[in-house]
Specification:
By secondary structure, the protein is an alpha/beta fold. Helices cover 45% and strands 15% of the residues. The structure holds nicotinamide-adenine-dinucleotide.
Length: 257
């Protein structure tokens, strides 16, 4: 990605920035000259990502963030507005997998926790971002919000029923917002990755039978990396994607092809 990508000087907010897709997208946006507000419940990890982003050539601030708490989401949004004067785009990546198990046996507290982070968290973040965006004229190519959904937002994952429900919710709120706010030049998309080895997916990758099952579904013969997902996120955030909105964009090695 170079200065011609139109990302230089643009400001982006990233949740789940301490790890995985959030960190990879942050470093990639920073290398294109972006200004970043990075949040994560793991504040030390978010600070490390901010260091990596500055080393890559961008500006970055970081803060502790709990996406399930409205005041915490407001604090990071306000920090971004104070530092950069505007939010041109956001990547809502914070998420949890929750325990694996059949629906009949999932504890209600586990369902509530997964929905709180993955669905309510994206909802709260989008609301704060939309309000900030609606308050100022859109940049060339429009504002852009990208949410982390999953292939589990498009098909059922039998042993991850709460995760599946939460990611279908992310796809739904992405579509609803895209339809309403297109007139305001706010694009809203989500990415639907297949399995990528990160701390979140560690429990899945630890099982050889899971790896074999997922590989058998893929068209391409290897698992994706965080950079493969970040590349799609960065493109969706960039003016190059100015006519793309309401899309659950699969980056799944053809698993759902
Ligand atoms: N890795 C995969 O296989 C995969 C596939 C499809 C979708 N996803 C989704 O992509 C997103 C990123 O996943 P990842 O693989 O990069 O995982 P990751 O574990 O590397 O990163 C997730 C980050 O979210 C943070 N987080 C968790 N709860 C939070 C909260 N309440 N508030 C703020 N931050 C919080 C974690 O601290 C962590 O840094 C998630 O939404 C996940 O569901 C991952």
């Amino acid at each position: 990605m170079n200065h011609e990508s139109g990302l230089r000087g643009r400001s982006f907010l990233i949740t789940g920035a301490a790890s995985g897709f959030g960190r990879a997208a942050a470093v990639s946006l920073a290398a294109a000259g972006a200004r970043l507000a990075l949040g994560d419940i793991n504040a030390a990890g978010a600070a490390q990502t901010a260091e990596q982003a500055r080393a890559a050539g961008g500006e970055a601030l970081s803060a502790s963030l709990d996406v399930t708490r409205e005041e915490s989401v407001a604090a990071l949004t306000e920090a971004a507005m104070r530092a950069y004067g505007r939010i041109d785009g956001a990547f809502n990546s914070a998420g949890v997998l929750g325990p694996m198990g059949p629906m009949a046996e999932v504890a209600l507290s586990d369902f509530d926790r997964v929905m709180a982070v993955n669905a309510r968290g994206v909802w709260l973040c989008m609301q704060a971002q939309l309000r900030a965006m609606l308050a100022a004229p859109a940049p060339a190519g429009g504002y852009s919000i990208v949410n982390a959904a999953s292939i589990a937002g498009l098909v059922g994952s039998p042993m991850l029923p709460a995760y599946t429900a939460s990611k279908h919710a992310v796809v739904g709120m992405t579509r609803a917002a895209a339809r309403l706010y297109g007139k305001d030049r706010i694009r809203v998309n989500c990415v639907c990755p297949g399995p990528v080895e990160t701390p979140l997916a560690g429990p899945l990758f630890g099982s050889q039978s899971y790896r074999d099952m997922m590989m058998a579904r893929q068209a391409l013969p290897e698992f994706g990396k965080v950079e493969d997902v970040a590349a799609l996120v960065v493109w969706l955030l960039s003016p190059a994607a100015s006519m793309v909105t309401g899309t659950p964009a699969r980056v799944d090695a053809g698993a759902l092809a």
